[in-house]
Here is the input.
Amino acid sequence: MFETIRWRCYVHAADRRGAGRVVGHIEKLLPCPVEIVGHERYWKFPELAEVRLVTPLVRPTPEQALLTTLQWAWTIATPWSLLNPESGTHQEFEGIASVNAGARFSVAGVEWMEFTISDRHEDTTVDPQT
Here is the structure.
């Protein structure tokens, strides 16, 4: 079962409040709630914040999970680069959209975004440091 989508993005935001505004615009594009589970300055480019998010997915098969995730991701940005899943007992898929690679984001302030879906049960509790 694919229960959640884990998102990670780099956004132009001076503080957590600014990052929250950007996330609010992302949430308006999706048909489900978005929860911020992490926020910190991006060490490489201090003008950016790294924001980690989760959204519910709840899809039983890899095909349904990937199709739904891509449909939602395409409302945020296009195009997305997909990474091949590793072989093994668990299935995991990742996608990346980046301004540097020609992606266009529907939400101003987003520079880079990644999604990960997996059939492994992941702990998505909020980081107390955020």
